[in-house]
Write a structure and sequence with these properties.
It is a single chain. With 342 residues, this protein is an alpha/beta fold. The chain contains eleven helices and 15 strands. The protein has two domains: 208 residues, DHBP synthase, CATH 3.90.870.10; 92 residues, Threonylcarbamoyl-AMP synthase, C-terminal domain (Rossmann fold), CATH 3.40.50.11030. It binds threonylcarbamoyladenylate (TXA) and magnesium ion.
Length: 342
Amino acid sequence: MQTLRLYANDAGSIEQAARIIRSGGLVACPTETVYGLGANALDVAAVQKIFAAKERPLWDPLIVHVSSREMLKSLTMQLPAQFENLFSTFMPGPLTLVVSKQATVPDVVTAGRNTVAVRFPAHPVAQRLIAASGLPIAAPSANWFQHVSPTTAEHVLADLDGRIEAVLDGGPCPIGVESTVLDLTVAVPRILRQGAVTAEQLKQVLGDVVVINPVSRGQKGLQSPGMMSRHYAPRTNVVLSQGRETELVEVVQKLSHQKVGVLLPSGWNIRAAAIFDWGRWGDWAALASRLYAGLRWLDDLELELVVAPLPPEEALGGVIKERLLKASGREILPGRMDFGKG
Ligand code: TXA
Ligand code: MG
């Protein structure tokens, strides 16, 4: 299959992409978080193609993207009391809500669950594509299963060229890490995946919220629950240091017999085989927006190791930290870092 590259600013490109969605094809599309791989959420055969293109196991359910509150309501039942506040504060935006589903949402989308994950993206290109299709769009991140999520059309093509009908190029994604997945089916809402809306922001609206470690979420069909920790992984081993220049330098020096690439905060000084200029340490939003681009860029350089400093759990720093721990195969930060493979 030849994958079309459509430019979101070109006249007619959104209509063309919407026609592909309506006829059961796959279109990758930018959102404010990462690129999604979209299909008509109400078409079982189209949704099955998403799983095939990504080589994603059928037990992992998809997020359904909507372009209005009405469309969201057409997929869901009994929205809980917290919904109105969450909707008016965070939507459209990088928050995904898990709620009970209508029978119209096919089992393939929800992996047979009676809940559906719904998201109203803030990105204008995603909104226009959903509205032009007139359909809710099921979309996981547009990468191979467990690979680093894509934040540009080039990243999408690197993983999926020839496997999908089209990619709608809308430039780099502004946030660069995935949406927060919040389960509203329980008395105290639970964060199933940390993301662009932080736990602190949610606490201000909800009062109380619990953060679940996804690895402890027993997945039916998983050989070992630890498999979940392979998410967001580049091919190259990732080693982490504490988030200070001196400690990063120390780690990189200890590993200098190997070909090392570094995700390096601007202005920090280090010698290594490859350096990705990550952005200003402390500007967590800027660092989040370039995290996956940096991991992918370094991953293509045939290095032996990638080293990155770990941000503190402060605003989006906490999300970067969680994604880096997953990329390195670690879940819990040990008191003292060791330098082997996680
Ligand atoms: O930012 C994002 O959320 C991006 C963009 C494209 O919207 N999408 C994304 O999708 O990251 P994906 O498929 O890579 O991650 C969706 C997460 C998975 O961890 C999945 O298990 C969870 O949401 N999920 C989906 N439906 C669920 C449900 N009914 N119950 C619990 N978890 C669900
Ligand atoms: Mg994903």
